[in-house]
Amino acid sequence: MNAEGRARLNRTPEWLALGKHREELGQTHLRQLFEEDPDRGTAYTLRVGDLHIDYSKHLVTDETLTLLRELAAATGVAELREAMFRGEKINTTEGRAVLHTALRAPAGTVVEVDGEDVVPGVHAVLDKMASFSERVRSGEWTGFTGQPLTNIVNIGIGGSDLGPAMACEALRPFTDRGLTVRFVSNVDGADLHEAVRDLDPERTLFIVASKTFTTIETITNAESARAWLLDGLGGDEAAVARHFVALSTNAEKVTGFGIDPANMFEFWDWVGGRYSFDSAIGLSLMIAIGPDRFRELLSGFRLMDEHFRTAPPEENAPLLLGLLGIWYGAFHDAQSHAVLPYSHYLSRFTAYLQQLDMESNGKSVDREGRPVDWQTGPVVWGTPGTNGQHAYYQLIHQGTKVIPADFIGFARPVAELPPRLAAQHDLLMANFFAQTQALAFGKTADEVRAEGVAEELVPHKTFRGNHPTTTVLATELTPSVIGQLIALYEHKVFVQGAVWNIDSFDQWGVELGKVLAKRVEPALAEGADVPGLDASTRNLVAVYRSLRGR
Ligand code: F6P
């Protein structure tokens, strides 16, 4: 597919066959598909590790799935997957390998980048993180005044924030409840203010997380955090070494900031920011849950990596989910994808996936730089159920849009819930099952009439149904399950990027805004003239300055 001269994606026989098949399926309803195949509810399921994945409520038949797998084969998904695992530089626009899978490779595996095995380095950093985490957790690592560090504040943004922030919340029951763990990402000073206003600097550890160590938000917040710390501890710069550590690929910048390189936890340019949460970027999480639980998380990632690499296409969950997304984007005109976890602890899960998916596949040129004329990554959105049911589900049920949705739920409530609250779990899950049922099968006009509804209200109370969903069910939310889920989505995103023939591992689109922000900032503070500023922005800057009394 990548080679010049081969047909572009939407002119391949496999794509055209899918288009024809879509026409044939027309408005075929899930009600019909389930009637025709009574085994569909068990046949269209996969078991991967702890995850039971039900894809029976998708607008697909055996033929659809075969055609989608043929598309994957024709577009070289398996070959690109092997190239990724082998450490080839598949991030072509940045000339980098894409090796987040090496972050969870067992010791002894050999994965080479430029002829060097990277796995020993991965384990050396993990061991260093484990030793540091244990020292903090036990109180052996003390602050400048000899106090144990019980407040952990991670300063980072994007991939240096969302993963550990999401997982600290998801795994809250596994965390040391004696620790206060907070995340500061926004350059809005209110974020840092709220994070530290009730903390004792003597007991506070700042983890400055930045792959590049040049991200303006993170460096600005880190400098402000250092000022806050020094204010609170009497101003002796020596305090910084006890209260600041860095997670980065950039030792020079870390040292320049004033953090002792001994307190730096390294990762590498072959780890993309949004794929970095199981690298040193996970230090705050490791301190919160402890090294053993962190290793369980890694084992969950690894389980899904092995599945993705070895399972046959018919049983390969990331492949399947990736292809389903392509089916809806290309042949059902779906613009978005909802991820709806039925777990309060997964409140940050979809936000994490937004970066993973949208920063990876929000692209409009192919690997050869040619505009694509097929849909790429969807808008990913969603919040935990049941809250969304009382807010935006109406649009999914009765609106005009096709919105494929993933429902993620657990058979058991977390162990520490008192019996009365644990008993609420069945009600939560009853909603979980009811929603996918209602979305798939709806309610016909005849069913509405049979309830004696007045004729003029029948159209309003009719549910078309036929809304596609995936259900992912696990026994309970554990570190390993988080690893399995994240790797499932990582590889799903990979599959889609491979079929669409885009580079899922760069993010040039976010650069322009950064450059422009740097240009505009002096205009805000000093009223400096910004050459080339458009008329709208120039006026907005003038209004802003006047509203600020400048
Ligand atoms: O602006 C986008 C981005 O580069 C993300 O890809 C990345 O996760 C985030 O910024 C933070 O970058 P860094 O870890 O280098 O501070």
Automatic annotation (TrEMBL):
GO terms for biological process: gluconeogenesis; glucose 6-phosphate metabolic process; glycolytic process. GO terms for molecular function: carbohydrate derivative binding; glucose-6-phosphate isomerase activity; monosaccharide binding. Its EC number is 5.3.1.9. Keywords: Cytoplasm, Gluconeogenesis, Glycolysis, Isomerase. Pfam families: PGI. Pathway: Carbohydrate biosynthesis; gluconeogenesis; Carbohydrate degradation; glycolysis; D-glyceraldehyde 3-phosphate and glycerone phosphate from D-glucose: step 2/4. SUPFAM superfamilies: SIS domain. It is found in: Cytoplasm. The keyword Phosphoprotein does not apply. PROSITE patterns: P_GLUCOSE_ISOMERASE_1, P_GLUCOSE_ISOMERASE_2, P_GLUCOSE_ISOMERASE_3. GO terms for cellular component: cytosol. It is an enzyme of class 5 (isomerase). It catalyses: alpha-D-glucose 6-phosphate = beta-D-fructose 6-phosphate. Its main location: cytoplasm. The active site is at E359 (proton donor), H390, K514. NCBIfam families: PRK00179.1. Belongs to the GPI family. Catalyzes the reversible isomerization of glucose-6-phosphate to fructose-6-phosphate. PANTHER family: GLUCOSE-6-PHOSPHATE ISOMERASE. This is Glucose-6-phosphate isomerase. It comes from Streptomyces globosus. The gene is pgi.
